[in-house]
Amino acid sequence: MLLAGATSASGIASATALVDAGARVLAVGSNQDRLDERLPFVHARYECDLGDFAAVKQLALQVHEEHGSIDALIHLVGGWRGGKSITGQSDEDWEFLHHSVLTTLRNTSRAFVDDLVSSPAGRLAIVSAEAVLNPTPSNANYGAIKAAAEHWVNAIARLFAKQAENAAAVSWVVKALSDKSPEEAPSGHTPVQFLAQAAVDLLEQDAGEFNGARIALPKA
């Protein structure tokens, strides 16, 4: 399994849960020192600029040489930028979101989609947002990029439906991945913990039941 954006709080929690469940996790991030410090327990760690398709293709070659094909890609690369109404949706914020959310998804999925199609149980997942179906002027840049990311995932889901009936591509929907502690969360569980559990569930569920699904994760 390739976990992109692995050094974030959600990446670390997901990697921990997946390793505990017996998965072989290959972690990818933008800084090798952070990868080595925060994820010493995963199978392998790779520094890569996922916004650079040439670099991602080289990553895919290295992964294939060292580990063979992957069975799952969990894309947790992202970020958030807001603004004051429509006129406050700046070009700088748009470019940041387009690069960090959409370009990295396009690059990683293009480089590894053939692995997922050929796998007996290919999986692709991203984190999307409630903002996609609840647009606001101040969140227009962010919601539009997340909507585009969901469209991309749904296109891959259609590919899976035609070529790989045991594969599934999904969008997990959250309001926000807050940094609350479990003690501060009303349910005793944080959004990050719910995401980590969803990553484990992704490997265990029947693909036909959720390929192309937009799955709302529990709130804290």
TrEMBL record:
Pfam family, one: adh_short
Species of origin: Glutamicibacter nicotianae
Record's signal peptide: none
Record's keyword terms, sorted: Oxidoreductase
Coiled coil: none
InterPro entries linked to this entry: NAD(P)-bd_dom_sf (IPR036291), SDR_DHRS6-like (IPR051122), SDR_fam (IPR002347)
CDD domains in the cross-refs: SDR_c (cd05233)
The protein, known as: Oxidoreductase
Family in the record: Belongs to the short-chain dehydrogenases/reductases (SDR) family.
Keyword Oxidoreductase: yes
Transmembrane segments: none
PANTHER family: DIHYDROANTICAPSIN 7-DEHYDROGENASE
